[in-house]
Amino acid sequence: MQSKLLRGTFILTVGMIISKILGLFYVIPFYHIVGASGTALYQYSYVPYTIFISIATAGVPLAVSKFVSKYNSIGEYAVGRKLFKSGALIMLLTGFVSFLILYFSAPFFADMMFSSKDQVKTNVNDITTVIRSVSFALIVVPFMSLNRGYFQGHESMGPSAASQLVEQIVRIIFTLVGAYVVVKFLKGSIVSAVSVATFAAFIGAIGGLITLFWYQYKRKPYMDELLKQDKGTMDISLKEIYKEIILYAAPFVFVGINNPLFQAIDQFTFFRAMGDTSFARNAFSILNFESQKIVIIPVSLATGFSLALVPSITKAFVEFNRKALDRQLDQAFQILLYLTLPASLGISLLAEPIYTVFYEHSTLGIDVLRVYAPVGILFALYLVTAAILQGINEQRFTVLTLLVGLLIKLALNIPLIKMLGTQGAVLATALGYMAAISINLFVIRKFADYNFRFVFRRSALIVIFSGLMWLGTEIVYKFLLLFLSPASKLQGLIIIFISAGVGAVIYFYLGMKSGLINKLFGDRVDRLKQKLRLRF
């Protein structure tokens, strides 16, 4: 049973990581199709959409899976089926209502971004168009989330992972092909190209939903057989069912909308601080789309590994197993730091060739990415600490951390942007996240009775290793700059490959030599060393 659960968690984690990686790297060709103005327009629509979709679906798969798994474990299979049947109708209804709200409120969201009524009306009209294009996805995504949760409740993670991948692949293909055809063949406007690209969210969701329907068809005999084994001793009303679902899902709504709300603050305050100029629009695109896409690359990997430990944390906490709980928390924080710190520092160090390879050689883009990259550590730490709060049943504090972080961001964003330019928005984000994380850590310390002393000691070792990696990488990087230019895409790619490769070897060697990797990842490292015939 335990091995099946771990296998399922691994499948879901790998699926999530692959899906996110695909979602990150498509921005390279997309940027070259629509340019900086197009990516800025794209991001204008995605921030309100992400907030709506997070409220509508955040926590739904987990809440439904937790509910179904709970009642399946006691043989009450009909209860989960009852939730699924009624939930399907409710999710379709709420999805359609969410679509209508976002569609008709699009002019309001577009207008909020500009401080002066005298500014060009075309901007508002363009943003309204792309917001309305992406809003169609809201019709499908909530219903799809319910289906994913129902499969997960039966400890079947493959359908969720497969549907995520199909959704992402279909969305990316439609985005790139659609935008390219509009721009190159139809000679359409950038607004039309971006509208097609945002509508791809709806097409991708249809692809993911069809995948889930296929799995439902294949597994219907098994599901029906389970229903025949139903004990039928419990008759739970729909009111009680949805009360329980809301209690499960609510904390994840706040975690899910945290980053979109931070981006929304940038979206609604940036032009008030910078003015509506071509420079400001370019700077906003760099901040909220181009740099952000690169920064969350290490975040996706680290949180995938760390969040896989959360079920074990929950189990240890419920069973009052102090030793196991401390061990799991130690491992979660260490894996997070071990994977995120060197990657974030490496992106910061190699910001010039990385930004050039992804997009173009831009002084502002490079400067923003260099400052923004370390903030990725805070993104990852917030997600993991919030998940741990759920594991120790103190998820109510996620509301507090969300509000504190947002208030700090909102209060400081305009003053810091006026003082430091685009980097001021990055600093405001960092300060908001630091405040939220500090509260999360305090809650973990208090309610899990967790002592951070060991993590602090191990973190110091990871910082030292990262510093040595930074030094080695910088020496190689400076040497390569003597005869290679980071302003060239091809030469920049060579610089990244060699410099990052040297840094990775240094970091991997130090981790192996010290035994740190073995302590974090266990027997899997020994098997890897045997396959690679490494001796340390």
From TrEMBL:
Keywords attached to this entry: Cell membrane, Membrane, Transmembrane, Transmembrane helix
Please provide an example of a Pfam family that matches this protein in its UniProt record.
Polysacc_synt
Supply one GO CC term from the record: plasma membrane
Q: How does it sit in the membrane?
A: Multi-pass membrane protein
- According to the record, the segments passing through the membrane are 12-34, 46-68, 89-110, 130-147, 168-186, 192-215, 245-265, 294-314, 335-359, 371-392, 399-420, 426-448, 460-484, 490-510
On whether Membrane is a keyword of this UniProt record, the answer is yes
Q: Which InterPro entries match?
A: PG_synth_SpoVB, Poly_Biosynth_Transport, Polysacc_synth
Q: Where in the cell is it found?
A: Cell membrane
Q: What is the designated name of this protein?
A: Polysaccharide biosynthesis protein
Q: Which organism is it from?
A: Neobacillus massiliamazoniensis
